[in-house]
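REVIEWER CHECKLIST
Item 1: Sequence provided? yes
Item 2: Single chain? yes
Item 3: Sequence as submitted:
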Amino acid sequence: MPNQKDENNLQKEVGTSEGSSTLYEYTDSGDVSWRPPVAYGVYAEEVEAHFAALFPGRESSVFHELVSDLVHIDVHIMRPTAERAFFVIFTTGMSDLAMTLPEGIAEEHRDLERAELFMMLPPDWDPGDAYQTTADIPYEQFWPVQLIKYLARFPHEYRTWLGWGHTIPNGPDYSPILDDSGMGGVVLLEPGADFSPLTTEEGTPIHFYMTMPAYKEEIEYKLEQGMSALDDLFAERDLPLVVDMYRENYCK
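Item 4: Structure as written out by the authors:
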């Protein structure tokens, strides 16, 4: 995750968990010079329109990426309304490039090769003013933007893919995302047909995955029992879709 080195990393399959999840490790292939994006905002307008339809009537702003390596990732901020009092943030640019699907999945599910990420955040989150630079925002507030920017670049840097049920620990020791929260990783959820996929005007499907912080024990439960089991647990415990970094650990 954001505190890890991520220059031209490559994936290596290292085994399968008890829950049939494929396990990977990522290695650095050496120093690589800056790589200008080969595409820029290919589907950005359509993704923005998609979220505007899902969450109408919201003031919005964008954290534009000033210097981009490989892909240009912007993070869009949609502010709360009186009726739906939570922030929505989402990426554009991740879908500019196709992800590298495993051979078996690529043959049957080519529609999974393009994606964007989003999160729902509580109304007391403070992303700063619309034109404030990221350097002016403390990490305690900026981490959601940093997190989904990192994850949106992740599959292109590592020549891999992200999809429903994928879990990403914050380093090998599940370091806390926030010092005062025990959550040390994320799981990607696909919350329903209203969100995903979007079929663009040219016929390209784009999936949207909710980036949900999770505890180490929840991620390990998924690795042991499979994502369907974790999904069932989240449903049973009524997992809040608006991120709560201090919620109960469902697998403690």
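Item 5: Key structural point noted by reviewer: DSSP finds five helices and ten strands in the chain.
Item 6: Recommendation: ____
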